[in-house]
Amino acid sequence: MNSDGNQQLLKDYQAYLRVEKGLRPLTCEAYDSDLKTFAEFIEGRHGVLLTAAQQDVAGFLENLREHNIDSRSAARKLSCLRGFYKWLLLDRRIHHDPTVNIESPKAWKVLPKSLAEPEVAEMLERAGMAASHPQALATALRDRAILELLYAGGLRVSEVTALSTGDLGLDLGRVQVRGKGDKERIVPLGRTALQALEEYLREGRPHLARISSARRGNSAGQDATRLFLSLRGMPLTRQWVWHVVKQANRDASPHRLRHSCATHMVEHGADLRSVQLLLGHADISTTQVYTHLALGRLKTVHREHHPRGRRRELEVEKPPEPHGGLRLVSRAKPGKVPAMETA
């Protein structure tokens, strides 16, 4: 098998990921990119994917390290290789998995970066002021709704762009989201986000939808039901949503707003299971990282609820007992009057 055989093998695997595993297109593209990188490395050694050995996988990881690829990216690529060769084993195309006994690079525990609550409040207030102007444009109403939705529901940018008008349940205070692997979940929304979405649907989106109808006639198809439309009446792209967030705050991003949503909920006492369901994490270990961002609250809970912590706090804050002056009492024997006493 030559490089053309490698390409055909990767195409078969892509079909497996899309059809049988039901992975999202962006996830499939990421896997395909990682596998093509490994295929190029193997071809440089005059080998092919089907005959790769443990030495080839170890050499690939070493090559990544030499090119200063961080350990988290290397670990992701190794995970991709393991899934690929597991599929080949199940399909009986190989008899030995070259990724067996390959130690995964230790991924650094990188804490997600989030915005402070005042930063988010200021950003949303500015967007609200622009949308509440008597001559507010449809795009201002749209942008405010996007920002409120990203922060209120902790949505991914791809989930926001995929929303249709039928996914909204404003009367029930929620939205139906399709996440990774086409998994659906119900995300509750707060009053401010619901109000922003209602105003956009009532005053902003009809104007953008008319532009879409005028440009493409009645053949708009599924795009006509997309929730967020551009000024040209086209569905918004992920890049444009990124631009909207950057315009509101240059230090923010759609994913940082998602992290901010989770972080602020944990800081205010939300349990990890609820945050996991809200964000759509498959594994709660992914959600546990947010506990590291709420150490201040953990210290407060410890002081308030731990017996020793509370006692220590009371002792520190306990004021000294008032006294009127020096009081000396002699140790007199029983039956005798003390020699001196002052007050």
Task: Considering the chains and any ligands shown, give keywords for the structure.
3% strand, mainly alpha, three-stranded antiparallel sheet, single chain, hpI Integrase, Chain A, disordered C terminus, 343 residues, 3 strands, globular, DNA polymerase, domain 1
Structure, briefly:
By secondary structure, this protein is mostly helical. The chain has helices at residues 3-20, 25-44, 54-66, 71-90, 117-131, 138-153, 157-161, 191-216, 238-248, 254-267, 272-279, 284-287, 295-305, 307-317; strands spanning 168-169, 174-178, 184-188.
What does this structure look like?
The chain is mainly α and 343 residues long. The chain folds into 2 domains: 3-90, DNA polymerase, domain 1, CATH 1.10.150; 130-295, Orthogonal Bundle (hpI Integrase, Chain A). Helices cover 56% and strands 3% of the residues. It contains 14 helices and 3 strands. It has helices spanning 3-20, 25-44, 54-66, 71-90, 117-131, 138-153, 157-161, 191-216, 238-248, 254-267, 272-279, 284-287, 295-305, 307-317; strands at residues 168-169, 174-178, 184-188. A 3-stranded antiparallel beta sheet has the order 1-2-3. A hairpin with a 4-residue loop joins strand 1 and strand 2 (174-178). Helix 5 runs antiparallel to helix 6 (138-153), helix 6 packs across helix 8 (191-216) and helix 6 packs across helix 10. The longest helix has 26 residues, at 191-216. The radius of gyration is 30 Å and the shape is globular. It starts with a helix and ends in a 26-residue tail after the last helix.
